[in-house]
Structure formats: structure tokens, C-alpha cells
Queue: 2 jobs
Job 1
Amino acid sequence: MFGGGRAAHRTVHLRPGADLAGFRIALRGLVAGNIPPECVTWSAGDAPSLFGAGAFEESAPPVALPKAVAGLIPMVVPHRDPERYALLYGLVWRVLHGERHLPEIASDPLVHRLGGMRKAIGRDLHKMHAFLRFRRTESLEGERFVAWFEPDHHILEAAAPFFVDRFRSLAWSILTPEGSAHWDGTALRFGPPGDRAALPEGDGFEAGWRDYYESTFNPARTNLKAMRAEMPKKYWHNLPETAAIPGLVRAAAGRTAQMIEREPQMPAKRDPVRAVAAMADQDPKTLAALNAIIRRSEPLVPGATQAVLGEGPPGATIAFVGEQPGDQEDRQGRPFVGPAGQVLMRAMEEAGLSRADSYLTNAVKHFKFEERGKRRIHQKPTAGEVSHYRWWLDRELDFVAPRLVVALGATAVLALTGKAIPITRARGPFRFDRRDTPFQGFITVHPSYLLRLPDEAKAEAYAAFVADLRRVADLGRELSG
């Protein structure tokens, strides 16, 4: 693992690709030896190790790193940048030598560069998850599904567990120019590079998928720029549906004209007045028009006094998304004016954020409660209720167009991603990719969580919440710049 010339210098040889295990071993040895970054040369290739995996490596103790740094390492190691290992070790060295909060300083050149590399890996993983297609084949061992993919970075080992979870009962192989992954139903193994020529011809499932894609294609919403942005052309030759796209695009104008000329038919068993009103309201063109729709809509769960709309200037750099209105919000018709809202306002002020410059809204627009005597006790919305309001939230954010969206609590995260993600695992910067236009986000707790804590825990939790909002303020300034 280690070699070198001068006594104070070390050359670290790692295997090609993403050698996460090797980097962690080297990191422990370098930190134990107190070797500064400028005395380390990193080499990723087939060169043999000059220092064997001997007692020095085994005796090196684990390195205690902040969660932000520990989580960053596996998301940067797969990057193709040959300087990635040196940059990561430089970050670790600075954190361990007095700059404990360095990862929170987004303006630092090293943090900024590593953050960009992390985002690139996240995008590459997303593309592999979305655009990899398996084809069925038969072998002596039985049925197997094979796919070919060409990632931008060394992400095969990081991406493979996703497909294990998704297709655990199938035997499959993923072939790439750098390596291959194979799952037999019980064990995952990695092998040498694959050959695209070994990919089987299209199967019946692939033809069925193409037919389904053609049947769901909406010619009235054809947007070539958006299609290329979401599905880059480099992936087209691996996707069965792309063979149909040229013909669908050529026919889009004619099909749209036919849809316009076709005489509209009233849906059966519906009130004509309400049906016409619903059709007129399907596509609001402004935030005011959207809010008018929300005001007129009945609450999904009866009892709320009124819909509580978002508040703040369109074009605000930062938008905060909470769970749902509370008792005071329902009475006043404004978001974040109750006890939890007061906690948020105080924390925002301490973090240098202004309510007047921010946009505040909720995932669910009506107050859901249970009556106990004269009190109305908040009830958490169900996943179905969150889904019911999600379209409104998506359109609302489209009109506001913030640079940064802050999810306050698990319900807001569910509304923005469509997934139940634990706050403790995802707290911090987060990229929300569920919508057509991905946007930069940040996940933290809902201020009502702080109100429910025992008194001895409140001070520490509140300080962590303010620290989160300070990071939000820094990110907002960086994105505005």
C-alpha cells in the first residue's frame, strides 16, 4: 500500500477505478503517521504495492471523522478526477487539524470542488438507475438478464446494490467498459470489463415496453430540449423506447391538431358544471391563479377553516416547505405564525435569514386535527394525503422558482421526493430529483420537533437547528452568486 523514496514522503498505490477500501486503509496509516498532504503522492493504477499489507496497516487505528466528511468520501472516490484522493486527504487533514467545521463552508475552494464531484457522482448514479435496461437470455445455468451501460465515472460497485434490491429474485449481469457485476440470487460479485457485442438481441419484454411508451406519449407536450436534458443522447442506443422517438416527434404536430379538432365529449356520470370548471382550472398560468384554485378546493380531511397558502416573494432565493398548517395558521390564514413558526422565525433571525426575503409554504394546505374538548390537536397527514396535495406544491415551486428549497421535517421530504427518508440520515444538503426540473435542497427538522423535546435536550437541538439554517444561508448566497 505504501512506498516512497525519502523518509518523510509516501507514495500510495491504489487499484484502478474506485478503490474505496484501499483509500480507507491508506487514510488510517497516513493519519497514524501524521503525514501531511504535501508529503503524499497518490497513484491509481496497476503498479504493485511497495509496502505490503502488513502490521503497519493492521495496527493503524480507525479515524474519527465528522459525519459530513465520512459521507462525502464514498461519493467522491468513484470520480474520474485523478486528484480525488489527494483532495479528500487534504480535507481530512484540515478537519483533523483544527478546521472541524470546514465541510460547512461551501465557499472554501476545496469544499466547493469536492461538492461538485459529489454532485457529478449523484447524477451519474441517477442516470444508471434510470437508463439501464436488461435483456433476457438463456444459458446452461438457466434464465439470466443482461444489461450494458457506459457510466461517466467509476460507479459500478456503488450502483450495483440498487439493482440487487430492485431485482433480488432474478439472475442478472451488468456489463460496462471497465468491469462487470453479476448477481445469482444470493451473492454479488464483480468481474472484468464486458463486451457490448455479448448483449442478447431484444426480447418480448423490450417490445412490450416500447409499445407501452408509444401509447403513453403525449404529442401536445413534446419538448425536445427537456427530453435531451433528462435523457442525454449518449444513452439512447441502450434504451428500446428511443427507437420510437423520431417517429413520435414527427407525428406530434399532426396528432396535436387532431386532438384540438376532435369534438370534446362530456365524461359520463359527472356534473357538467363542475366538470367544465375542473377542466378550466387544470393548468394555472400564475401563482395567483394556482392559489385561487387552492382556496376554492375542499379540504381532503373536513374541518379546516380555510386553505393556508404560501407566503413570500416569487423569485425568492430560499423556499421553506413545512408539513401542514397548525391551529393558529388555520385561524389566521398565514403559514408559520403559531408556536413552531415562532421558533422558526427566531432561528432564522439568528442565522441571518429574513422572513420577508424567503418563501414559506407547507406540503399540505389544510389543517388536520382531532378535537379534545375546546382544543384542536394536530394530526400528522398520511402519505395519501401528502400525495393528494403534491401537484399543488410542485406547481407552486415552479412559479416561485427558488434557488434552494429547505424541507422542514419528514412530511416535507416525502412531498418533495415521493419517498420516506429518515431525517437523521439525510439531514443537510440534498438534491431533489423527483420533479422534471431538479433543484438544490436542504433537509432539516421541523421546528415543532424542538417543542416536543424534554427541556434538557432543547438547547442542544435548537443550536443544531440554527447551525443548519446558517448553512442554508451560506448555500443561498452561493447559489445567488
Job 2
Amino acid sequence: MRHLYVQGAWVSSSSGEGIDVVNPATEEVIDRVPAGSPGDVDRAVSAARAAFPAWSATAPAERGKILKAAADLLKDRAEQIARTIATDMGAPYALALKVQTLMPAGVLADYARLAEERGEAETRVGNSLILREPVGVVGAITPWNYPLHQVICKVAPALAAGCTVVLKPSEVAPLAAYALAEVFHEVGLPAGVFNMVSGHGPVVGEAIASHPDVDMVSFTGSTRAGRRVAALASHTVKRVALELGGKSANVILPDADLGTAVKVGVAGAFLNSGQTCSALTRMLVHRDQYDDAVGQAVSVASTYTLGDPFDEATRLGPLVSAAQRDRVVHYINRGQEEGARLVAGGGDRPLERGYYVEPTVFAGVAPGMVIEQEEIFGPVLSIVPYTSVDEAVDIANGTPYGLAGAVWGATEQEAVAVARRLRTGQVAINGGRFNPSAPFGGYKQSGIGRELGEFGLEEYLEVKSLQL
């Protein structure tokens, strides 16, 4: 069994218990990590608290150099780490390499640069000197769907800002976080600056969120779990950043390039087997083009081949666990019960082994249906008709979420005009590429705060004014 990483060393958990790590493509146990305890969290928080004065006083440029060395080492090990993610999380290897490994390595390098460029970030306002100081000890609780990227999105800005960190990675796909801990250890990050306690959310996650010596908790996961984290954190009035669920709309305007919009939209729904919080799971199409769009979506979905994550022909890997597969199958059944038409996929055991679900498309989806309102987190696309742009905007804004979205129009100006009306944190215009330096986060029940770029760094800084 693996160990926890506390005070710059690999140590045993006080619980003595472990959690099996399962390969979702083969259903075989491949590793075992500690099921950490509240006592382990105490040790990690104490280490982070003790390391905070020296790390926060370290020159930003020096912090940046250490983070840059870590980013370089991550890139050197990218193929190895991608294989790890393809094995314990199930992402196809090409996706695991490009999106799950090289992108977060780039984000880490970006924060190394920001640490060096921003320096102490002092400004003057009248007779006041405005300081930005690290918030303190940060508890980071991360999910399984992007098991390195979501860790980097929290740990990198926190360390760049001068904070120290206690990380709880997902127990479902934890091995990439272990690889990161090894990288930090090898580049000489001072002991106690980064600590990692694996374990179950209701035990380790709740101990972190409620700990009186944790100054901030940053959580990514379900909206339900985010509410629990916020409630626990409120007792000590600590800062909370939440990146939660989504039910993002892909609005295709009547004069857009329908073929391109549908093809890219299906890709946006099925990325990472649909296990993406910002997945474009609702495709909104004008009624005059609806049947054409449905037919094209079915055709595109048929090209998403299921299979071994290490097979180059595979476009959809397994879902991460049996529980996640069962959850997605439940939603597919619920959609049919509500009267939506299953026009592609729907099978829950298409291969002899592995937690696979076929790429699934629903037509005849009406606003208010469960599959149109709730986050499914699987390869399931709902196509919703509309009769006017105003109605499309109302449908797009008509869920409790507001994380991401997309708009397709004949011109950028036309698409931007509609995007401005969407109550969501990020909108892709005519297929605009994801920018890992732009702020990412949601409106409404999709969360609080922003990750990535300078906005992500600001989450980990307190503001102080000195009146001169």
C-alpha cells in the first residue's frame, strides 16, 4: 500500500486502512492507497502551518523557480503520467497525454511565470499602500475526472501566492496526484509546503473543510458535496472556493454552420466520456433545423468508438467506476421514462468488461426534463428545440447551473451578442478553443470564485491596506 505525503516525507496513515484503486477498463485492482484519518489531517495541517511563515516570506521569484522546475519535470514524465491516468481513470491515452497531463504542466509553468512577474504586487491608492498577501494554509479537495489538472488548478496558484497546501485527491483516481507529490519532492519544495492525505471525502475532506487551522478550502466536485464543504467551512469563517457542476448549453443559431456546430458540439458533450463539468450536454437547435441536426448528431456519435484506452482507435474510454456507470444508466432510463426519444446508444454493457456506456443521444427533449436539468456526467447528449433566440436564451439559462456554454452564429458579432446574455462563466464562440490562462468558474450553483490565470491567483491572496 502507498503512503501519505506529510512534512516532506512518505508516512503511514494512522488508520491502517486502505482503498483499492481499480482500472475501469478491466475492473481489476491495480493499486491501494491509504484511507486517511482526521488524525492524519491534523498532522498535515500542522506541517503546513509550521511551513507557512518561511514559504510566504520566500521571494516570489524563488517560488516561481521551484514551480518552473516542477513543471519541467512533469513535462519530462508526461508519457508515464498519461499512462497512469489512462489506467486508473480510463481516459484514452491521447487525451490523457494532451489534455490530462501536458495542459496541467503548462498551467503550472504559467503560475511559475506569474509568481516571478508579479513580484510582491504592491500598488498605491492615494495615501495607501495596497498589499496582497497569501491567505495561509489551503485545503484542496479535488475530483477524479481530471485527476492532475484539477490538482494543479488549486495547488499551483496557492504555492505561487505563498500559501501552503494540504491536498486530498480523489480516492477513485489518485495516482496522478502521487506522481505530482514525487515531482515536488524531487525538485526540493521545502518540507511541509505541500502535503497530501488520501482518503474518503466524508472523513478526510470534511476534516480539512472544518479544520480551524485551515484558512481556505478550495473544492471541485458535485454541487451537493460543495454545499457540505461550504457548510463545514462556515463554522470557522474560512474562505471558500467552489468549482461545481454544470449543464452547459450549446446554442446553434439558425444561420450558423450547422454541420460544424453539431460535430464540435458532440465532441464537447463526449469529451472524457462526458465526465467533464463544462461538457456541452444540451444542444439547442432551431425547430426548422432540428431534424437535420438530430440526424447529424447521431451520425457523429457513431464515430465515437469504445475500447481500451491504449488502443489508438478508441475515442471513448470507460466511465471511472461501476457506481458512475450505474448513475449514467439511471439517467438514460429516466430520459426514456420522461418521453425523450433515444436515437443513439443507451447500452450500459457494450463490452465484455469495463464500465462502459455507449455514446448516447436523446431527441425530443423538453425544458424541465430531468435529463435536461441535472448533470449526468457521462456520454449523454440532449438535443432541445427552440423557436426564437429569446427562447433559446431562456432555455440555456433555465437550469440551476452556469458553468460554461457555447454559441454558434454566422458571425462572431452575432454569437457574442447572444453569449453576453448567457448567465454562465465561460462561453465558446464559434468553436473558440479552451484557454487555460483565462478565468474558469461558474454562476449560480456552479460555484464560487475562479480558477486559472491571474484570476485564479487572486483567489489565494488577502488584500491589506497601509495608510501612510
